[in-house]
Amino acid sequence: MKRIVLGLPLAAGLAGPLFARDAADSVAPEGATTSGFETLSPQVATALEAKSAGQPVQAENWMVAAANPLTVQTVLGLVEPQSSGLGGGAFLVWYDATSGALTTRDARETAPLAATPRLFQDEAGEPLKFFDAVVGGRSVGTPGTPALLAEAHRRWGRAPWPSLFSAAIDHADQGFAVSPRLAGLVEGDADRLARFPSTSHISIVDRYGNVLSMTTTIENGFGSRLMVRGFLLNNERTDFSFRSHSDGVPIANRIEPGKRPRSSMAPTSVMKDGAPVLAIGSPGGSRIIGYVATSIVGWLDWGVNIQQALALPHVVNRFGTYDVELGTAAVDIQADLEAIGYEVNARDLTSGLHAIVIGLLGAADPRREGIALGE
Q1: What's the pTM?
Q2: Cα-based angle 199, 202, 203 (whole degrees, multiple of 5)
């Protein structure tokens, strides 16, 4: 009997079903996408500049999948700074075609040793307002992305480490076309900026059969708003619960020294008979798991193609409340859900799904500025 298995990072898979209401909800809205064609070695990434930056790497005779996330991530940190970068964290799933091994890595940001349970509480012990906690050094966790990319290169890469930064350096020196979303975020006021938290996802399959799926983030749009040597620092510590106890019982997601907050990031490899058939992931905060699961079910069980699967209307239940996607057929079930007692919110659910069907077919979410290209 054939088996289908999902490969997920352990930390994401163990994230509890109830997420701290005090933590940020990283939703990543965007505009449009080009995608969906067969290719020898496809990648899907959030910004055209970042995706294109990965293309020259493919001419090198070494493991492309291990190198491209570093090139793509450094360019994303430049052209989409609101979403991810070296000042953030990530989860990675890697399939090694030679050994058949599936490796996961948790590069979630870490609370410093000086962190205390009252970090996000006022003098009366009450939780701070979310954006009072976000802006500034209080919210910054120790970034994990640089160490993750360094380990991936050490274990699987073959190109000289400095060469992988060339694309980002060239874009920084020569300039780049600012995307409509980034322009709008910078131009808008603080209230609008606050409504656009961020995360990025990268999926890569190389010509040797290696498969990478990585979700990377600095949490809220532009993170903590602090920049160090050109890199925005994350605000991931606000993903901890602001309260340390509930009814006298310690909250599992409370902040503690050296601890990493819960996460719903879910970079995924779908395995069939021990080999990957799909790499997929998405931004979207606590809705990520719902976004990814819906697309997998659509492609695997309902038989729609991968581009159609990524465009399926979103229906997500969090904390017992349903979110249904405005402007789609999902709103048709709102009245029925409310009739049986559910609270339902109809709203924009702008995921940023990226997927590769290994065969190879790439696709990217039409809700986002993502793209799927290959050579």
Answers
A1: 0.80
A2: 145
